[in-house]
Amino acid sequence: MKHLLKDLRALEHMIAEGMIESGVRRIGVEQEMFLVDRGWRPAPVACEVLDRLDDPRFTTELGLFNLEFNLDPVVFGGDCLRRMENQLTEHLSRVREAAKGLGADILLTGILPTLAKSDLTLDNITPKERYFALNDALKRLRGGAFDFRFSGTDELIVRHDSVMLEACNTSCQFHFQVGPDEFAHLYNIAQAVAGPVLAAATNSPLLFGRRLWKETRIALFQQAIDTRAPDDHVDDRAARVHFGNGWVKETVLEILRDDIANHRVLFGIDIDEDPFDAIREGTAPRLRALQLHNSTVYRWNRPCYGVLDGKPHLRIENRILPAGPTVLDEVANAAFWFGLLAGTAKAYEDVSRVMAFDTAKTNFLAAAQLGLDTQLVWLDGRRAPADELIVEVLLPLAQSGLEASSIDTADINRYLDVIERRVRTGQTGAKWLLDSYADLKDKGTEAERLVAITSAAASRQLTGEPVCNWTPARIEEAGGRLKSFVRVEQFMSTELFTVHEDEVVDLVANLMDWRKIRHVLVVDDQQRLIGLVSYRALLRFLGQDVPHGKDHPVSVQTIMQKNPITVTPETPTLEVIGLMRRHRIGCLPVVRDERLVGVVTESDFIDVAGQLLEARLGAS
Predict the structure, then answer these.
(1) DSSP one-letter string for 472-500
(2) What is the model's pLDDT at position 620?
(3) Which terminus of the chain has a lower count of CB atoms within 10 Å, N or C?
(4) Whole-angstrom Cα distance, residue 10 to residue 314?
(5) Strand pairing of 519-523 and 498-499?
C-alpha cells in the first residue's frame, strides 16, 4: 500500500509537470481464446502450447484451457486496422499450429458452449503463484464459496469453491492511447458508447447449456470477482468488476483514487523501484504497485498507465467486447469503437452535459442482457431500438471519426459494412448461437447439441466469413455421439423429479405415471440424496397385503432404498456402464458434495446403443 500511494503521487506529479506523452494516438489489442480438444471440449494444454511457441507476446490466462497474446501498438491512422487484422490472423495461425501437435485447436468465443462445471476445478488453474494468490485472496474476502445466480430465458443457480468461473470468459480487448488533458473527455465518451457498441457485438449467450444474457460474460465476470460477502444489511460498496458510478470531471487520478479507496490490495509483490528516484534520473517509472492494483480492479473501460520507448503514456482499455466470432468481426468491432470515440469527441464538447451517467450505465447493462433487442437512449435524448440507432446515427458518426483520423477509406467501408450487415440482419454471434441451439432442440442430446454448435462455430470461423453470413449449426457437425458421451455430466438429466421421505407413496406412483419414469429420487430439504424408489419397489409394495390408501397413508421412507449407489458428474461413461451392469441397476443418481445434481438411467443408453449398432451394421 505504501508503494501504491507513492506511485499515485508520482503519477500526479508527472501529469502536473507535463511528463505524460500527448499528441500521439496509438491503438493495441489483447486477444484471448479457448483451447479445445478433438471432442470440442476444453483442452488444458496452455503451458505446452506456450513452450512450443516460445514467444513472450503469448501468455497465460487463469485457466489452462485459455491463452492470450498481445499485438504491438500501432499509430492510429492509414492502414492500421488492416494491419491489426493481418497480425491477429497470423498470431492465431501460430497458436493453432502449436496446439495441433497436442491434439488441440483454438476457438474465438465469449463463453465456450461445451464448458462444464467439472472443467473449473483447481486442477485446471494455471500453475502460477499469481493465480493461486488471487483465488486465496478472493475466497478470504468473500468468506467462503462463490455463489452465482443468473436469469435470462433460463435460470442458473450454482455454487463454486474457487475463482475458476472467471475462466469461462474470453474477450478481445482494445486499447486507445490518450493524452492526460483529453483523458476525461475521451473516457466519458467510451462510457457513453459502451452500450451500443456491446449491443452490436454480443457473443456469449450460453453457460452450462442455459440461455442467459446475450453477453453473459458481463454478469459472470462481475460475480466471479466480487469480494463482497453476503450480509444482513444493504451493502453499498462498489463491486470489483463494475462500470463506474459517475463521469470523470478532470483527470485519470479520480478513477485511481476511487479504486484505491474502495478496493483492498489483494496481494503484494517485491518492488525495488522508487518512482521519484526514476523521475529525478530522467527515466519513466514503471509504477508497478499502481499497475498491479489497477489490474485487480476490473472496470469495463479501464484506465491504463504504461511506458513505450521510454515515454510514459495513458490508455483507455475496452474490456466489454467478447472474443470472436471471427477476426474480421473483432476488427469491425474495434473500428466501430475507435470511430465512435473520435467522431463523438469531434461532435460533442462534453458528453456529461448531454447525457446522465445513469443513462450510459443503463444502456450498457440493457445491451448486455438483450443485445440488439434493447432500447437505447442517445446523447440527444433520443430513445430508439438499438439496431435503428446504430444504423441511422452511430455508424455515420463512427465513419466521420475514422475519416477525421485519416483511416484508409477502403478499410472504413469494409469494417463498418460488417457492423451494418450484422445489425441489419440481427445476426450477432449471440443470435447465431441461440438460433442454432433452437434449431437443434429436438435433435440429439443436450451434449450433442452443444458439441455441434461449438464444432460449427470453429469451422465457420476458419472461413473468415463474418457471423452475419453464417448458416445455422447442424447436428451432424457434432461428429458422432462418441464425442458427446465421455463423462456423465455430458448426458445426465438435470430435470429431476424428487420427493421427501415423508411424502405419501401415492405421489411417487403418480409421478411415475405422469412423467413416464421408472425411478424417483428422495432428497432432504438441502437437496441431499437420501434414497431412491424404483418401479419394482413400488410394485412389490402394491402387491403386499398391507393396508394403505386414504385411511392408511404410507410414507416414501417405508419403501425407498437407502444409500443408493451414486456417481459424480466427472465419472467416465464406461465406468457408469460397468456399475449398472455389475449391480444390475437401472438408475444412478449423480451427486456433488452430497447434493443431487443429476440422474442417469438405462434408457439414456438405449438410443445411443441403437445408433451405434445401426452405424456398425450399415458399415458391414
Answers:
(1) PP-GGGG--GGGG-SBGGGT-B----EE-
(2) 57
(3) C
(4) 14
(5) parallel
**Is CATH 3.10.580.10 the classification given to domain 489-619?**
yes
The alpha carbon dihedral of 219, 223, 228, 233 has a sign of positive
Backbone angles phi, psi at 176, to 5 degrees: -135, 110
Sequence-distant (6+) residues with CB within 8 A of 18 are none
Could you tell me the residue ranges of all domains in the chain?
2-403, 489-619
For residue 479, give the H/E element and its range: none
Cα-Cα end-to-end distance for the chain: 72
CA distances from 137 to 426, 442, 545 (A): 42, 44, 62
pLDDT score of 139: 86
Query: Which residues, 6+ apart, have CB-to-CB distance to 265 below 8 Å?
Result: 1, 4, 293
pLDDT of residue 232: 47
Q: Give the separation between CA 396 and CA 376, rounded to whole angstroms.
A: 17
Question: In 10 A of CB 521, how many CB atoms?
Answer: 21
**DSSP string of 35-65?**
EEETTSSB---HHHHHHHH--TTEEE-SBTT
| DSSP 8-state secondary structure symbol assigned to residue 588 | E
The pLDDT assigned to 603 comes to 81
Quick one: pLDDT at residue 34?
98
The confidence score (pLDDT) of residue 447 equals: 85
Beta pairing, strands 74-75 & 146-151: unpaired
Q: Are 172 and 321 in contact (CB under 8 A)?
A: yes
Residues 40, 30 contacting (CB under 8 angstroms): no
All residue ranges of the chain with pLDDT < 70 are: 229-237, 480-485, 545-551, 607-620
- Whether residue 318 contacts residue 261, with contact meaning beta carbons closer than 8 Å, is answered with no
Question: Which three cell numbers mark 437?
Answer: 441451439
Q: Distance (Å, rounded) from C-alpha 28 to C-alpha 75?
A: 9
Q: Is the pTM of this model over 0.85?
A: yes
Query: Is 2-403 a domain of CATH 3.30.590.20?
Result: yes
Angle between helices 535-543 and 505-515 (to 10 degrees): 130
Query: For position 229, what pLDDT does the model report?
Result: 66
pLDDT at residue 269 in the model: 82
The three three-digit cell numbers of residue 127, written as one number? 500453475
How many other CB atoms are found less than 10 A from the CB of residue 262?
14
- Amino acid found at 356: A
What backbone phi and psi angles, to 5 degrees, belong to 504?
-80, 150
Report how far apart, in Å, the C-alpha atoms of 570 and of each of 287, 492, 564, 575 are.
44, 11, 18, 11
Is the backbone peptide bond immediately before 396 cis, with ω within 30 degrees of 0? no
| Half-sphere exposure at residue 87, Cβ-oriented, CA atoms within 13 angstroms | 18
